[in-house]
């Protein structure tokens, strides 16, 4: 039996004990997870410094603060989320109990990504724990130092039988995918997402795929360009552009391209100084393979800002590309690096057409003071999410579902959405062995009169107060008795 198979079996046996059914157990695990983040902040930050050259403050800002907020939200609301949820009744079910009972799915596989390894690996784990599942955690091997820290620390704080950590590369992931799970949660790229979905199909395992794509950023020529470009520059160059919802390219009127370039140039200097390579707040590409991939995307485009690079350090300066053509290399795949292409469009119509002719993105960014324009772009395009007049921050709002559509993924999470997505919503109807007369309309022999009464009872909604329901119930009992006597007695 392989190491991966043993981990899955151990999690399944632990889940079979039933201890995750207890809300107290789940809350204790979540509190322990929060304690890990608080007590081991330095180890977490040191590992990310080695992996992505991220500063300690940057690690807190982009990874752990959001996790702490998510955990606190879940702890506060778990009892309410896990409670039976009332369901609307029709006249036939007026005297019955109807409710929806959230239940754990079972054993969940969580395959994390390397760009924000704590946020995109542990946040789904928070949802899995809250919903009462067991979970096998597979950190990305690309962020090698963070993966090692995760493997060492998680078993010290949370139930190591219920939540085993499996490290390794492609072969280990492939071995995990041979096992049977009750849900698979993957964050990464589209190519691997297809392989995950194919493997899951063997057991009809549901999947959540948090992918990415080329997220467009439309700038209206009449908006405040100084503020717009400042927010775009922050969203693009944070984590050296290695963010699944980073603005991938700009669409704007050709008349404002030079101004956009100049404003972004100013912001790069303000954020990262004249020498970004020496700035502690500017990161690095994860490895040389990705460095070469990103640099190859520049070959047939014109550099307007930046362009400096150092392969030995995996450094690529914050870069803007001007007058980019739709067929350019940089427009053929998600960039996932600090390159920002600018493409000219003459109108909102052209921008919408350009977006709709391509795969559905994970995010759509719109910069304008015209609310009608915002609503039009929301209505006439399809994307995982929309953010007007800012970048990235919708990810941090737990009351909004986060996820893709089409090529950018399937399924959503964050806050209550994580709990619901990783739960089975069991519909429950509890009847009594009484009032059998009202059921005569459904029994053979079938007649037009029976159908008429069935249509009345089934299609009529029962939106009444408790007192009204009692009065209606009494009336229906009389009606049922009359029906039985007049139509069904013989």
Overview of the molecule:
It is globular and about 80 Å long. The protein has 490 residues and is of the alpha/beta class. Helix content is 44%, strand content 16%. The mean pLDDT is 94.
Number of helices: 16
Characterize the overall form: globular
User: Which percent band covers the strand fraction?
Assistant: 15-25%
Q: What's the end-to-end separation, in Å? A: 67 Å
Summed over residues and divided by their number, the pLDDT gives a mean of 94
As a percent range, the share of helical residues equals 40-55%
Could you give the count of β-strands? Answer: 19
Q: What is the rounded Rg?
A: 27 Å
Largest sheet: 7 strands, mixed
Low-confidence parts lasting 5 or more residues at pLDDT below 50? none
Question: What is the fold's blueprint, element by element?
Answer:
Blueprint: H1 3-16, H2 23-39, H3 41-52, H4 56-82, E1 85-86, E2 97-104, E3 107-111, H5 119-130, E4 134-138, H6 144-157, H7 170-177, E5 183-187, H8 190-201, E6 207-210, E7 216-219, H9 225-237, E8 249-252, H10 257-272, H11 288-296, E9 302-305, E10 309-310, E11 315-316, E12 319-322, E13 339-344, H12 348-356, E14 363-367, H13 371-380, E15 385-388, E16 402-403, E17 409-410, E18 412-413, H14 415-421, E19 423-430, H15 448-459, H16 466-488
Parallel strand pairs: 3-4, 3-5, 5-6, 7-8, 7-14, 8-13, 12-13, 14-15
Antiparallel strand pairs: 1-2, 2-19, 6-17, 9-12, 10-11, 16-18
Short description:
The chain is α/β, with parallel strands linked by helices and 490 residues long. It contains 16 helices and 19 strands.
